[in-house]
């Protein structure tokens, strides 16, 4: 909301005297809601080049983020599919390999030449309390070894066990276990074979001394068995045959055939999270301290798949002991018998973020998982993300660079503008003296270089105000210059200097506005009031005929001066809030729903229905001005803008004669009250009709230009030794924006008079 502030420069005292309306305007600001958010956007973007990279960042940011998320989701889905394919392929390969091992074990067990030899060993084991030596020294023991040795080596087996139904080792590729009774997991696998024909065990540590792949005898080496049933001639199970397999040679190799990239691996683990195959990261695990740094130490049957909760590959060390650490996200899910995948990322046994897929194999009682580091799995996404961030950073840096460059250019331009003003030359106009400065612009008295005509030049620095204010400034000039009525202030010129100063040139007026007239000299007689109002109506008649509604008619915007020997000549100022009818105005400039005007002189519809204002709004305002000239007081007053507006829309105005106590011609009073009707239809439709009604009013004494000349001569003679008036109306934009100056001019008696 905004309202002109009235500033009066006194020549002698240098003090500022405020009129009554000036005091009211300190409380009542003009009710003006700013134009729509799009107002001046085009101009802003043309001038503020630094905004383009920001806009580009916003335009690219949204779609870029969407593209990034889409690519990431597509990549995640692709990785899930690939990991599931790998783990399923590994599980299928294990099924095939284990099936082959069961078949091989069955073929070995079906050898008819083994039956009599095993039967003999069963007899020896049953006939002696301590049969170990007898079993070792039995001829059939040697024959079994000879029979199986070549075939075992040919099929890739490294040893064998023949176990009785009681769990006694009847025969083996070495003497140590013979005659011993099996216990624990080893007994379970041979017992299970007797019940299920054949099976393959999971890897486990052998309590025997075995030869490793280099032929060295070592303890606790990993081993596993393919077991089948030995039957007699009647088909009755008599023993079970287990073929020893070295898991690091075959079992692990199958899981390592298919794996993802440089960090992917597939491995098996039991229900306790113990790895049943060898990790590809054994060397790294030794550096992390998860494995002993010895050549013969490996991860198979040594390392548990637990989450250290830190990334050990970065040198971080866990705070919990290995046994107290939880299973990884994958193994904790798998040991519960679940198959699944995780593409969001979880820590593996090294603490490195991984994505993976897993399966639990109930028939073998272990799980299989395939994993790959997140950094490798989503490397394309990270490259895209970095590229996107770099692009955004470049756009922001460009915006900052352009902004800094514009600041520098702006400073240079301001320096040039100051130099222009210091030179007192603005195009064809020589600036004589500053008349006053408003929040948005500065007014100078000037003289045209060729015509030598005094003018008033209003300057607007486009770099210091909003684009909306510049647009309104231009609009005010264009609309005002289109009107040619003698009672409308004349605009001579308009333009922009090379250094960016916007300006327009108006006729230079000497006198005072109607607000000051009443405050300094009291209420006017009816004859003079009608004389002045007719001139205001004349100016408005042209505007209304052109489809324009000024919307801000008030005493401060009507200036009283002398022109060409004519006294009491009125000039109507300030067309900054003009509304064009029939779609003439720029839709981007003024929000049709915005309230515009000064509350003391606003019509009811301008308050309640600002989008429906027409010429009747100005008729209401002219009548309110006439009421003020007759009574010295506004139609309605109040303690707040809201109270005044409510009175305009609801309360009936008090007749002027009752308000002032001075008789008013009946027809004139009736006309004013009719113009102040709440409904626009009850008023004269426009200023032309009001002008005719004023001319037709009876009982009003004549007020002529001679009467006006006499009044001016009397008061000018009284005031000549004291002062002349400089009037400068400065209207403030709402919400802290730069104000728009609406200017009424007069020659100052004292060039150093203060203005504000």
Q: How would you summarize what this structure contains?
A:
The protein has 756 residues and is α+β, with helices and mostly antiparallel strands.
Largest sheet: 6 strands, antiparallel
Kindly state the number of beta strands: 26
Question: How much β-strand is present in the residues?
Answer: 15-25%
* The level-1 CATH class of one domain: Mainly Alpha
Structural class: alpha+beta
Mean pLDDT: 80
Inertia-based shape: rod-shaped
| Helical content class | 40-55%
Task: Report on the architecture of this protein.
The chain is an alpha+beta fold and 756 residues long. Among the domains are: 111-245, Beta-Lactamase (2-Layer Sandwich), CATH 3.30.450.20; 512-722, Transferase(Phosphotransferase) domain 1 (Transferase(Phosphotransferase), domain 1, Orthogonal Bundle). It is 40% helix and 18% strand. The chain contains 22 helices and 26 strands. The strands form 7 sheets. Strands 2, 3, 4, 5, 8 and 9 form a 6-stranded antiparallel beta sheet that branches. The chain has a 6-stranded antiparallel beta sheet with strand order 14-15-16-17-19-18, with helices on both faces. A 4-stranded antiparallel beta sheet has the order 10-13-12-11. Strand 12 and strand 13 (366-373) form a beta hairpin. The chain is rod-shaped.
């Amino acid at each position: 909301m905004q309202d002109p502030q009235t500033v009066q420069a006194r020549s002698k005292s240098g003090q500022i005297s405020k009129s009554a309306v000036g005091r009211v305007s300190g409380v009542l600001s003009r009710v003006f809601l700013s134009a729509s958010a799009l107002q001046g956007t085009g101009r802003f973007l043309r001038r503020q080049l630094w905004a383009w990279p920001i806009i580009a960042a916003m335009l690219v940011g949204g779609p870029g983020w969407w593209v990034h998320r889409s690519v990431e989701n597509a990549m995640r889905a692709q990785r899930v599919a690939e990991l599931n394919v790998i783990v399923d392929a590994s599980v299928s390969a294990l099924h095939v390999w284990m099936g082959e091992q069961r078949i091989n074990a069955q073929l070995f067990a079906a050898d008819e030449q083994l039956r009599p030899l095993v039967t003999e060993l069963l007899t020896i084991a049953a006939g002696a309390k301590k049969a170990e030596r007898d079993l070792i020294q039995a001829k059939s023991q040697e024959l079994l070894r000879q029979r199986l040795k070549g075939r075992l080596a040919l099929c890739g087996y490294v040893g064998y066990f023949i176990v009785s139904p009681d769990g006694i080792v009847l025969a083996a590729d070495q003497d140590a276990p013979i005659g011993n009774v099996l216990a624990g997991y080893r007994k379970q696998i041979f017992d299970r074979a007797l019940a299920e024909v054949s099976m393959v065990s999971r890897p486990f540590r052998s309590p025997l001394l075995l030869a490793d792949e280099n032929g060295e005898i070592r303890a606790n080496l990993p081993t596993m068995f393919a077991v089948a049933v030995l039957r007699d001639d009647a088909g009755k199970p008599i023993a079970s045959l287990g073929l020893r397999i070295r898991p690091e040679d075959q079992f692990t190799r199958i899981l390592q055939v298919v794996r993802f990239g440089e960090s992917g691996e597939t491995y098996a683990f039991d229900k306790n999270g113990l790895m049943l195959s060898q990790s590809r990261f054994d060397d790294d695990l030794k550096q992390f301290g998860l494995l002993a740094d010895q050549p013969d130490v490996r991860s198979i049957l040594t390392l548990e798949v637990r989450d250290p909760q830190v990334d050990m590959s970065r040198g971080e060390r866990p705070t919990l002991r290995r046994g107290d650490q939880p299973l990884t996200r994958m193994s904790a899910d798998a040991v519960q018998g679940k198959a699944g995948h995780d593409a969001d990322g979880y820590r593996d046994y090294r603490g490195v973020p991984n994505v993976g897929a897993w399966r639990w194999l109930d028939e073998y009682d272990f799980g299989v998982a395939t994993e790959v580091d997140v950094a490798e799995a989503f490397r394309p996404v990270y490259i895209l993300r970095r590229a996107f961030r770099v692009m955004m950073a470049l756009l922001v840096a460009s915006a900052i660079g352009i902004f800094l460059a514009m600041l520098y250019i702006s400073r240079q331009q301001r320096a040039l503008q100051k130099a222009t003003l210091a030179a007192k030359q603005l195009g064809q106009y020589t600036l004589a003296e500053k008349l006053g400065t408003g929040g948005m612009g500065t007014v100078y008295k000037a003289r045209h270089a060729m015509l030598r005509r005094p003018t008033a030049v209003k300057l607007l620095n486009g770099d210091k105000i909003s684009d909306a204010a510049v647009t309104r400034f231009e609009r005010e000039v264009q609309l005002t210059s289109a009107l040619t009525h003698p009672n409308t202030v004349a605009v001579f010129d308009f333009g922009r200097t090379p250094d960016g100063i916007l300006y327009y040139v108006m006729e230079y007026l000497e006198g005072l506005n109607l607000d000051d007239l009443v405050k300094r000299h009291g209420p006017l007689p009816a004859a003079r009031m009608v004389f002045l109002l007719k001139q205001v109506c004349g100016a408005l008649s042209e505007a209304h005929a052109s489809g324009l509604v000024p919307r801000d008619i008030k005493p401060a915007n009507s200036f009283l001066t002398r022109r060409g020997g004519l006294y009491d000549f009125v000039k109507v100022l300030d067309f900054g809030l003009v509304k064009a009818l029939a779609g003439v105005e720029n839709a981007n400039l003024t929000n049709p729903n915005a309230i515009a005007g000064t509350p003391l002189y606003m019509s009811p519809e301008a308050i309640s229905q600002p989008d429906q204002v027409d010429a009747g709004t100005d008729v209401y305002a002219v009548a309110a001005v006439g009421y003020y000239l007759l009574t010295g007081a506004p139609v309605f007053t109040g303690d707040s803008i809201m109270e005044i507006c409510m009175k305009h829309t609801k309360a009936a105005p008090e007749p002027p004669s009752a308000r002032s106590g001075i008789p008013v011609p009946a027809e004139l009073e009736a006309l004013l009250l009719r113009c102040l009707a709440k409904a626009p239809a009850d008023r004269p439709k426009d200023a032309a009709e009001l002008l005719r009604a004023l001319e037709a009013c009876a009982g009003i004494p004549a007020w002529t230009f001679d009467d006006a000349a006499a009044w001016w001569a009397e008061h000018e003679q009284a005031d000549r030794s004291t002062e002349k008036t400089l009037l400068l109306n400065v209207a403030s934009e709402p919400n802290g924006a730069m104000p728009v100056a609406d200017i009424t001019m007069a020659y100052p008696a004292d060039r150093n008079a203060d203005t504000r």
